[in-house]
Amino acid sequence: MCEPLSVGVYACRRANVTPDTKVLIMGAGSKGLVTMLAAHAFGARKIVIADVDNRLLSIAKDLGADDTFQVST
């Protein structure tokens, strides 16, 4: 799990995530979910995550996503 965590932290640093930031994450796989958790730790005001898999979106909601969006293939 170190590689997905490093991706999430790097993305949040690169995007300058602060308490004023709204974040959209495309993909609720392992990297997307850990990026969501990193954005939350960085203090992001609102986190939305999108994916094609409703099961992964449910997990994202349970982990603290403010909103989820299911896209079609």
Keywords:
NAD(P)-bd_dom_sf; single chain; metal-binding; oxidoreductase activity; zinc; alpha/beta; three-stranded parallel sheet; Rossmann fold
How do you describe this structure in short?
The chain has 73 residues and is α/β, with parallel strands linked by helices. Helix content is 48%, strand content 21%. A 3-stranded parallel sheet has the order 1-2-3, with helices on one face.
Explain this structure to me?
Keywords: Metal-binding, Oxidoreductase, Zinc. It comes from Artemisia annua (Sweet wormwood). Its cofactor is Zn(2+). InterPro entries: NAD(P)-bd_dom_sf. GO terms for molecular function: metal ion binding; oxidoreductase activity. The protein has 73 residues and is α/β, with parallel strands linked by helices. The protein has one domain: NAD(P)-binding Rossmann-like Domain (Rossmann fold). Helix content is 48%, strand content 21%. The chain contains 3 helices and 3 strands; from the N terminus they run αβαβαβ. It has helices at residues 2-14, 30-41, 54-63; strands at residues 22-26, 46-51, 67-70. The chain has a 3-stranded parallel beta sheet, covered by helices on one side. Helix 1 packs across helix 2. The relative contact order is 0.21. The mean pLDDT is 95.
